[in-house]
Structure formats: C-alpha cells, structure tokens
Amino acid sequence: MEITGTVRRRTAERKRAALERLVAERDVWVSTSHPDHGPHQVPLWFLWDGRAVWMCTGAASATARNVREEPRVRLALPDTFDVVLLQGEAECFPDQEVPEDAAEAFADKFGWDPRVEEGSFLYVRVAPRTVRAWRGEPELHGRVIMRDGTWLE
Fold this sequence. Notes:
Blueprint: H1 11-24, E1 27-34, E2 38-48, E3 53-58, H2 62-69, E4 72-76, E5 82-94, H3 100-110, E6 121-135, E7 144-147, E8 150-151
Antiparallel strand pairs: 1-2, 1-4, 2-3, 3-6, 4-5, 5-6, 6-7, 7-8
C-alpha cells in the first residue's frame, strides 16, 4: 500500500507531536525479553511524567519477571502509520515503594490505584534513551528524535 500526500516534518515538529501523544495516549506496547523465556510483548496503560513513562503490572507477571532480569525495553504507541518508539531501561518499584507523586498521577489518569488492590503490583519507570518517530516512508530518514537521552532539534 502506498501512502501519498505525506509531508516530511522537521525534527522539532516530530518531537512536539511525539510529546503530545505521550501525554494524551492511554496504551503502550511493552516489549521485554528474558534470557530463559525469550521475548514478550503486552499492552499496558501508561503515564508520561515529562521525563519518563510509568506503567504498572502484576508483580508476578511475565513483564515484571523480564524487566527484573533484563531491564532493557522497547515501547511503542499503538499506531503503525504515526510511529513513536521508545527504548530505555526499566526501573522497578514495588507498589508500596513507588514515589507518591508518580502513583497519584497514575491513579488520577486511570481512576485505578494498584496500591489499594489485593495482590502485589510493580510500577515500571522507563526514561527513554532513544526515541524514533515517523509518519510513512518520507520520514524514515531522520526518524531518531532522541539520542542518548537528549532530544534532538
């Protein structure tokens, strides 16, 4: 399928659009891997705090198990034309040790507070080291908009 009419955006425009989506979107695809069990991908709710993505999952889930063993993760917003991919290392916080401001912001966004649920949950924070963003083939060149944790202009 050929997409026509796509205008190549500058890096600053891609950054602005990616940040807007990180604030507005609800779901992110989380890709993890485990040395014994292999790759795993799952959608999770997420919160962007201006510097990092916060997610929450069951403490015994495959995602939790994987990030404890191998913290390198990839995240993808759920759109195959307006692509935003983030890569970074996961930092884990048991539900009773998560920073209060992050837990409150997560609960405010979703109307759900894992800290009061039965069972154990793990908050996962990913500060991106690399962000790629593109819309269609014309934007494949120059798709990196963050490198080594620094936004490009």
